Amino acid sequence: MANAVHLGSGKVRELYALDVERLLLVASDRISTFDVVLPTAIPDKGRVLTGLAGFWFARTRSICANHLLALRPDGRSTECRRLEMLPIECVVRGYLSGSGWKDYRKAGEVCGHRLPTGLRESDRLPEPIFTPATKAQSGHDENITREQAAQIVGAQRFAEAERLSLALYNFAAAYALERGIIIADTKFEFGTDRTGGLVLGDEALTPDSSRFWPADQYAPGGLQPSYDKQYVRDFCEKIGWGNTYCHHELPAEVVEGTRGRYVEAFEQLTTLRFNDYLANPSIVLS
Ligand code: Q0N
Fold first, then answer.
1. What's the CA-to-centroid distance between 11 and ligand 1, angstroms?
2. Strands (E), 156-285
3. What is the residue with the minimal CA distance to atom 14 of ligand 1?
4. What's the pLDDT tens digit per position in 165-214?
5. Helix, strand, coil proportions of the chain in percent (round to 5)?
6. Residue 202 C-alpha to ligand 1 middle, in angstroms?
7. Pocket of ligand 1 (CB under 6 A)
8. Is the pLDDT of residue 93 over 90?
9. Neighbours of 183 (CB within 10 A)
10. What global pTM score does this model have?
11. Which numbered atom of ligand 1 lies nearest the CA of 15?
12. 203 C-alpha vs ligand 1 centroid, how far in Å?
């Protein structure tokens, strides 16, 4: 890291420049709920997410090129190709939740996709939909229509981003469902390389960039439990913060329970032992 120039911070990740062509994406153990970072870290969370993202990058290469170059031995750092990022978030929803559910209740549609009437919260959609959003510098991303997104990135780029996003989601959601995890929705960030080709960047198909639900507890008609963050949500609820700003240290059992869920998601999806990943992170790539 001695030669790396810090470029920026997200809520839970840091971005460094290694040289003109390469970046280092470092996932911390910080955890956020309702868009606020909690004061307590979840040990190894950054390693789980880095390993899972690497696993998906290796398995989706034939669908779409991605920025991954290598995983560092620390298990939480990804060396990646430097891209020109598109200024839109590429969201795919297979289920009706979060802002998708909100928009549907208000208008019967999400980002211009007219949906059947009578859908309930968390219902599976007739087919996955592409629901782009703007990248808000601070605060919440805003859903935009397909036409608005096409205006921002160009019709050609838009069509390509939509096609690739849907293909990536369809592949990953089917794979995860066979292993007991519903990927309700997910967010991709694409960039372009020097040749102008679209390349998948950021961290993809992790519980931080997606909604993971335990399939065995799926019960549409209300909110679903979160695969990874439910212990944290229950704790915040219990101490009276409900679903807002909760700036309270997490008790050890909540930390341990949450860590266990992340590790379980990793092991279920990769069919690898997390300890084997810690010993040699590149095992997720083959
Ligand atoms: C990039 N972001 C948004 C870390 C995550 N391969 C790339 N090339 C150029 N830029 C980016 C990537 C990637 N990935 C992605 N910002 C720049 C997410 N960041 C926010 C800060 O923390």
1. 12
2. 181-188, 190-192, 198-200, 210-214
3. 202
4. 999 999 999 999 999 999 999 999 999 999 999 999 999 999 999 999 99
5. 35, 25, 40
6. 6
7. 8-10, 13-15, 23, 25, 67, 80-83, 85, 191, 201-202
8. yes
9. 25
10. 0.97
11. 4
12. 9
